[in-house]
Amino acid sequence: MKLTVPTMLTLLRIVLIPVLVLVFYLEFKWTNFAAAFIFAFASVTDWLDGWIARRYNQFSAFGAFLDPVADKLMVAVALVITVQSHHTIWMALWAAVIIGREIAVSALREWMAELGERAVVKVAAIGKFKTIVQMVALVFLLYKEPLFGLPVFAIGEWLLAVAAILTLWSGAAYLRAAWPTLKKEEDRS
């Protein structure tokens, strides 16, 4: 296994998951800031590891496997702790849509890879935009407190709703891209 800088950043993201949970549940005035900071930092390392891998040609099979796993784990954990602390039907629905889509798209990518067509379901621009909106929403939701008179949590709720809608849109785009291959395989059966 080749341990590159991008892979080390991905491993750091995984290590930060239990730290995020612990900090989130501590009962100090600073924990909302710390939880939001940890998640924001992890989000930046997600971008940074990809940039470093491309810029310095530091790719590895292990890193390519681990990076999306780390991202999905961090987002799922942040969504779960947010829903647990603010359990409304809307928050649960948005979280279920986002987590459900991640599972479905991961399964679709795996299936397409088995068919030798992984490139058909590559990351699209809408997926990247969805990720940015989702990350900002989660930072706001983890921070919770008003900032400079802005209702940070309410903004986070609305951004999470937008992220959930973009999640459905991007999931449909992946399915639409894969559909011809899936249909062809079904016809062969």
Question: Care to count the β-strands?
Answer: 0
| Shape-level CATH architecture | Up-down Bundle
Query: How many domains would you count in the coordinates?
Result: 1
Helix content: over 70%
Radius of gyration: 18 Å
Report the oligomer: single chain
Low-confidence runs:
none
Order of H and E elements: HHHHHH
| Strand composition percent | under 5%
Number of helices: 6
The CA-CA distance between the termini, in Å, is 38 Å
The main sheet comes to: none
Instruction: Report the CATH C-level class.
Output: Mainly Alpha
- Structural class category: mainly alpha
Mean pLDDT: 90
The named CATH superfamily: CDP-alcohol phosphotransferase transmembrane (TM) domain
Named CATH topology: Four Helix Bundle (Hemerythrin (Met), subunit A)
Q: What is the general shape?
A: globular
Keywords: Lipid biosynthesis, Lipid metabolism, Membrane, Phospholipid biosynthesis, Phospholipid metabolism, Transferase, Transmembrane, Transmembrane helix
Family: Belongs to the CDP-alcohol phosphatidyltransferase class-I family.
Catalytic activity: a CDP-1,2-diacyl-sn-glycerol + sn-glycerol 3-phosphate = a 1,2-diacyl-sn-glycero-3-phospho-(1'-sn-glycero-3'-phosphate) + CMP + H(+)
EC number: 2.7.8.5
Question: How is the secondary structure organized here?
Answer:
Layout: H1 5-25, H2 31-55, H3 61-85, H4 89-114, H5 125-143, H6 152-188
Helix pairs in contact: 1-2, 1-3, 2-3, 2-5, 3-4, 3-5, 4-6, 5-6
